[in-house]
Amino acid sequence: MPKRIAAFGEVMMRLQVPGYELLSQSNTLQYSFSGTGVNVAAALARFGHEGCLVSTLPDHAVGDAALAYLRRLGITPSFIRRDGKYVGMYFLENGFGARPSRVTYTNRLESSFNTAPEGAYDFNAIAQAVDVAHFCGITLAMNDAVRGHMKAFAKAVKASGGTVAFDCNYRPSLWGENAYAKAKPFYEDMLALADIVMMNEKDAMFTLGMTTEKETRREQLEDLIPAVAAKYRISAIAGTHRSINGDNTHALQGFIYTDGAFTYARPLTFAVHDRIGAGDAFTSGIIHGLTEGWSPEEIVTFAAGAGMLAHTIVGDTPMSSVGDIRKALSDTIGDVER
């Protein structure tokens, strides 16, 4: 059955350099609006759920443009406040080959979302109106006020009997000096409230300080993730392992740990058009499969397919339907649809 799923997060303006040019080479930028919460809410709306965003936008023309963009994505704006002066922005330069993509943030900490005061949201009312709430580690890195909002909202969702989904999405650069020491207690708070978590072995090591004597990524994953699930009583932990091939294609394998066992999707190899937002597509696939009551194999296969397709679409926000993803996972990948 469709669920009402709310994502808590910032709406950002994405300013993209055309093609594979550097910012210093181009005099043209293409803009859109995105953010982890936007991506997850929009993807789940395409899967048939009611995707909501809990956020704050400025009450002026740029905020109006952002709100109109969110409506086109199918996002329900009921929980979006209008206050403050700014929308956070980031510039995107697409990578190629050995040169990675580069994201440069600007004006983010002064955005309407990141300056919303305590008490700005009625989290108890919102929690009673939704089935699932999604949170992201990038949002967690912003400031103490935002961290307070996240914890209060997650607690309200748990108290109302809803499901809390948390994507670790650890970015040391957003935490500044002594990133690990700053981040760890807040990650522990969110993991203790979460039912569904997106993380892999690197997240366990870099955010929680866990150690392992295992050498390969698969061995480290299978050593650390069960311990995280047991300690924080998490019902499902999912994530991906990625590798980049010599021909610039990427290989992606999804996994999910639930009911005391790992399930892996078959590895998918594909060309990349736009990588930003692919992790949010995978997350949305996991949430969708779990809320639909699918088997672990069905869930992780679908989520990996959602992540793969997101690499082929311009923009951060996943745009694929359930049918699109199932077709892409069939044996006719790449054929012309007639």
Structural account:
By secondary structure, the protein is α/β, with parallel strands linked by helices. It is 38% helix and 22% strand. It has 12 helices and 14 strands. It has helices at residues 36-46, 61-72, 123-129, 137-140, 144-159, 172-175, 179-193, 201-208, 217-232, 278-292, 296-310, 322-328; strands at 4-8, 12-16, 30-34, 50-57, 80-82, 88-93, 102-106, 132-136, 163-167, 196-198, 236-244, 250-258, 261-264, 268-270. The strands form 2 sheets. Strands 1, 4, 5, 8, 9, 10, 11, 12, 13 and 14 form a 10-stranded mixed beta sheet that branches. Strand 6 and strand 7 form a beta hairpin. Helix 3 (123-129) crosses helix 5 and helix 10 packs antiparallel against helix 11. The longest helix is centred in the middle third of the chain and has 16 residues, at 144-159. The two termini are 31 Å apart. The model is unreliable at 332-338 (pLDDT under 50).
